[in-house]
Amino acid sequence: MTTASVNATNVTYTDTGGTGPAVVFSHGYLMDSAMFDDQLAAVGAAGFRGIAWDGRGFGGTKATGPFSYWDSAQDLLGLLDHLGIEHAVLAGMSQGGFLSLRAALLAPQRVRGLILIDSQAGQENPEVAPAYEQLEQTWMEHGPGPVQDIVASIIVGPADGPVGYHPWFAKWAQADRQELRLAFRCLMDRDDITSRLGEITCPALILHGTADAAIPMERAETMRAGLGGPVTLVPVEGGSHASNLSHPDEVNAEILGFLQSLP
Question: Which terminus of the chain faces fewer neighbouring Cβ atoms within 10 Å, N or C?
Answer without folding.
Answer: C
